[in-house]
Amino acid sequence: MSVDYKSTIFLPRTDFPMRGNLPQREPDVLERWREIDLYRRQREAAKGREKFVLHDGPPYANGNLHVGHALNKILKDVINRSQQMLGHDANYVPGWDCHGLPIEWEIEKQYRQAGKNKDEVPILDFRRECREFAEKWVGIQSEQFQRLGVIGDWADPYLTMAYHAEASIVREIGKFLVDGSLYKGARPVMWSVVEKTSLAEAEIEYHDHTSKTIWVRFPVAAAATPEIEGASILIWTTTPWTIPGNRAVACSETIAYAVVEVTQTDGEVWAKPGEKLVIARALIEQTLAQAKVTGHKVVAELTGAELVGSVLRHPFHGQGYDFEVPLAAADFVTEEDGTGFVHIAPGHGADDYVLGRKIGIAPPQTVGPDGRYYDEVPLFAGETVYTEAGKEGGANEAVIKALVGAGALLARGKLTHSYPCSWRSKAPLIFRNTTQWFISMDKQGLRETSLKAIDETAFYPASGQARLRGMIAERPDWNVSRQRAWGVPLPIFVDKKTGEPLRDQGVIDRIAAVYEEEGGDAWFSSPPERFLGDGYDPEDYDQVTDVVEVWFDSGATHGFVLEDRPDLQWPASLYLEGSDQHRGWFHSSLLVACGTRGRAPYDAILTHGFTVDEKGYKMSKSTGNTLSSEDAVRQYGADVLRLWVVGSDYSQDVRVGPEILKQHADGYRRLRNTLRYLLGNLAGFDPAEKVAPAEMPELERWVLHRLWELDGLLRRANDTYDFHAFYSALHNFCAVELSAFYFDVRKDTLYCDRLDDPRRRAARTVLDILFDHLTAWLAPVLCFTAEEAWQARFGGEDGAWTESVHLRTFPDAPEAWRDDALAAKWTRVRALRRVVTGALELERAEKRIGASLEAAPVVHADAAHVEAMRGVDLAEIGITSGATLTTDPAPDG
Predict the structure, then answer these.
(1) For residue range 138-171, what is the model confidence (pLDDT) as tens digits?
(2) Among residues 223, 110, 70, 80, which one has the least CA distance to residue 627?
(3) What span, in angstroms and rounded, lies between the C-alpha atoms of 379 and 117?
C-alpha cells in the first residue's frame, strides 16, 4: 500500500485560479471599482501631491472603437497609473470632439438614405440631430474605454459641444479677431465638392487616382532673349481643368533649357514640323516621344535665368483670355518630370498662389463650391470638375477639346498617382480659390513664437520635434472657417461698407455669455442686436454663418479643460497621440496656445505609430483586416490587450491580429502563474517570519539585487515613457529567473523544510517582497489581474475589498539590496546550472534517467566558475542527488 505524503509537506494553497477567464472576470472587477469609487479614492489619496496631467486628445464621437483607439487609450492609462504610483496626482479627464464633418456626414448619410435634402432641413433641427448623435456615441465609447480598464473622470468628461466649451472656443478665436490676426481673405484651399466645405490637411488622405495629362503650348509674345522668339513654352499638367485659371508660367533659373525645332512626326499628331518648343534639356526625349515627334534638332541652349521676364500668350488668347502671361522664376520647379515648366493657376494651388502674390497677380475666381465653373468664365461656364457625388465631370474633356481647337495641345495621356481625397467621403478634392477666414502666421509673430515653443518642448521620440518644426516653418496662414452647420459659429460681424470684421471685445464677451447659457444654437436663433449691443446698428453689418473648423475646437481644449478645472493644471505635462497628430492636434493646440498665451500648452509630446495587421498592412474595412477593441476584449480580455500595448514598440507602427494576441495571451499566462505561485506559497504568511536581507542566503540576496535593478529600469522607463523594455525584462524575470530558476531551486525548501527553518523563512520573506513589487509593477498594465491577485491575498474573508492595489505607490527597492559582486558571481552559478540541466535533458531523452534526482553529475569548469561556487551547493542548484565540480580537464567525448 502506497503512502500519501501530502499531509507531511507544505503544498501551495490559494483560491487564485490558474485560468484567468478574463472576459468574464474583468467586468466584476470593474463593478467593484465603481462600488468603492476607486477614481475618487485615488484623488483623495493623491491630494497635495505634485500633479501629472496627461491631457486627452479628443476622439470623434461617431462610431465603435477600433484597436487603434485601444492602443492610444491603454497607453495613456498605463502612463497615468504609473505616474500615480510614482507618487503624483495623475488625474485624467477624458474628452470628445463632437463637432464637425465626421458627425455631420453621418446625419447627412441618414438623410440621403431617407431621400431627404439636408439643405431643406431647418439648421437648428439639423444641429439638434448632430448633438443627439454625438451624445449617443459619447455614451457608447465611454463604456468601451472603461471596459479596457481606463480610469478617469468618466462622470464629468469634457465635450467640445458643451455650452461652456463653445463659449470658451468663441473667447479663444475672439482673441485672434481683436488683435488683428484673424482676417478675411481669398486664397486657394483644399475643397470637397461632396461635403461643400474646405478641409484641413489633417482631414485629407491620399489614394491612387488616374488623371488626364496634357502638354500645352504657351506661345512667346515678348521674348526676354532672342533665341525663343517665335517659339512656344511647353507646360505639362495633370489637371487640365485648371488651364482657364492660368495666369503665369514658372521656370527654374538653374535648369538648362533648349529650343527644339520639330523636323519629323509619326503620322497624324498635333506636333508640326518646323515649330519650335522650349523644354528642359533633360526632358526633351521623353516629352517628344509622348508627342510622337520622331525627328528634332536643338537650335539653342540657355538657362532659366535667361528666360525670366518673357511674356507669353494664354492658349485661349482671343477667346476671352487676352491678358499677358508672365514667365517667372520659382524654386519649386524641377526637371524630375513634365517639361521643366509649370503652369501657374493662383486660384488652384498653394505654390501657385504664393508665386502669384510675389509677382502681383491675384487669384481669379473660376470654380464655385459646387465644382462648376462660374458663369463669367469664358468658354467653360457651367462645366463641372467634380460632381456632388464625387465623380469626374466634363470640365477636363471640355478644356482638352478647346485646346485642340485653339491649336495649343501638343500631346495628352494618363497618369496614375497619389491624389488628395476627403477622409470622410473618399472623393477627390480640388484646390479652389475661395473667401475664407484665416489666422495670420506672421502678423503677430505666431510662427516665430510657435517655433520657439517647439524648441522648448520635449519629444518622445525626439524625431517628432523636427517634424513639427518643419510643418510650422512652412505652413500657410490657418484657414479656420468651414461652410458647414454643425460647429461653433464664428463670432464675426462684417461691416457692409468696409468689408472689415468688427473687432470689439465687448461683442465677443456678449456672444460668449450667451453661448455659456444656450450654446452656439443661439447664433442662429437670436437677432444680431442681442450680440452687437446698443453701440452698433445691425443694418450696418452682415452676420457670418460659417463655423469654426474642428481643429481649432480641439486645439482650444487646453483652455477650457486644463485652465478651467481646478483638479488639473496648465500647461499639461504630456500630450500623447498618434504620429499623424503632428499635423493635427499637436499642431492646432500649439498655434492656439502660442497665439493667446505665448507658449505651448504642453511640456512634452509622445507619439505612437498606427496599428497595422500581422503582415504590416494598413487596416481597412475594404480589405477585411480590421479588428475592433470589443472583439479583442471579448476573446482575450482587456489585460491581454494591455499587455500587447506595452509588449510592442509603439514608437513604430504596431502589428496586431489573432496570432499576435495569442502570443501575448501566452505571456499573460506566465505572469499570472507567477502571481499564483507566490500566493500559493505565501498562504498563512506571518510578518513575524520575516528575515532581514543581511541574514539571508546568497540566492535570496541575488533576487533582491535583481529587484533593485528592475526598480531602476522601471523608473527610467517612466522618465522616457518607454515601457516596452521594462515589461519585456519583467516578463523574462518572471518566466526565466523566477519560475525556471529561483522557484525551481527553492520549491523543496518551501514544501519540505521546517516552518522555522531560516532558509525557508528567508525564501518566504523574498516571496512576500516579490509579491509586493510585482503586483505594484504589473498594476498599471494588468490592472484587472493585479487587483485580483491583491484581493486574493488581502481582501476580506467575506469577499469585501478593504483596499485596492491601485491606491498604492511603487514600493522602494533599497540601495542596500544592490550587490554587483554577488550578481556577477551568480551569473557564473546560473551558467553552471544551465550546463547541468542541459546534460540532464540529454540523459532523459536517452531514457537513462527519469527525474533529475536520479543523477549525480560531474562538472568540469574553469577556476573562475569553481571559485564562484564557493559556499554554493551545486546539487541543490541543479536539483540532483549529488554533484561534483572539478577543474580537471574534461574526458574525451
Answers:
(1) 999 999 999 999 999 999 999 999 999 999 999 9
(2) 70
(3) 32
Burial of 760 (0-12, 13-18, 19+ CB in 10 A): buried
Place of cell 464655385: 368
The amino acid that residue 585 corresponds to is: W
Taking the model in full, what pTM does it have?
0.84
Nearest Cα neighbor of 766 from 891, 837, 850, 678 is 678
Sign of the C-alpha dihedral computed for residues 834, 840, 846 and 847 taken in this order: negative
Report residue 4 as a C-alpha cell.
500519501
Measured CA to CA, the distance from residue 820 to residue 246 in angstroms comes to 75
Cell of 77: 492609462
How far from each other are the two terminal CA atoms of the chain, in whole angstroms?
A: 44
| C-alpha cell recorded at residue 96 | 470628445
Which residue carries 484597436 as its cell? 67
Name the 3-class secondary structure at 252: coil
Coil, strand, or helix at residue 237? strand
Who's near 609: CB < 8 A, 6+ residues apart? 578, 579, 650, 651, 652, 653, 654
* Residue predicted with more confidence, 138 or 354: 138
pLDDT per residue as tens digits for the range 456-474: 999 999 999 999 999 999 8
DSSP result, 153-168:
-TTS-EETTSHHHHHH
Angle at 594 between CA 590 and CA 600, to 5 degrees: 50
Q: For all residues of the chain together, what is the average pLDDT?
A: 90
| 423 CB neighbour count, 10 Å cutoff | 14
Contact predicate 393/402, CB 8 Å:
no
Neighbours of 206 (CB within 10 A): 10
- Parallel, antiparallel or unpaired: strands 248-251 and 342-344: antiparallel
* Contact indicator for 422, 429 with CB cutoff of 8 Å: yes
Instruction: Phi first, then psi: give them for residue 672, nearest 5 degrees.
Output: -65, -40
The residue count of the chain comes to: 893
Rounded Cα gap, residues 481 and 546, in angstroms: 6
CA distances from 217 to 133, 305, 648 (A): 53, 20, 56
The three grid cell numbers given for residue 822, joined into one nine-digit string: 554577488
Give the separation between CA 777 and CA 810, rounded to whole angstroms: 7
In the DSSP assignment, the letter for residue 49 is S
Cα 456 versus chain centre, distance: 21
Report whether 712 contacts 814 (CB < 8 A): no
